[in-house]
Amino acid sequence: MALYEHIFLARQDLAQAQVDTMTEEATKIIADNGGKVVDTENWGLKSMAYKIQKNRKAHYVMLRLDTPPAAIAELERLTRVNEDIVRYMTIKVDEHEEGPSAMMRKEKRGKKERN
Hints:
It is a single chain. A 4-stranded antiparallel beta sheet has the order 2-3-1-4, covered by helices on one side. The protein contains 3 helices and 4 strands. With 115 residues, the protein is α+β, with helices and mostly antiparallel strands. α1 packs antiparallel against α2.
């Protein structure tokens, strides 16, 4: 199996519970196709650099996956038809980063500087 990172941006008007449900659905798709989700990071509601489909902000979610390519194809197919997801990207990686991603480390560093 190969290692992937899948990031999707959900519409800004969704509740956090709806975003969590979308994350669980993605996890189920991967599990049903013989893969596993190694880690999930919810980056929260963030501003985007430019408007996408009339949205200035989006809920960012990253999934670290250990899965066969067929599961990625199915995940992307179902993501493409989901109207609540404005953008997504899947990349193949050689190995997963240990600990939190750069986005999560950036948030923690910013909180320390403010205190």
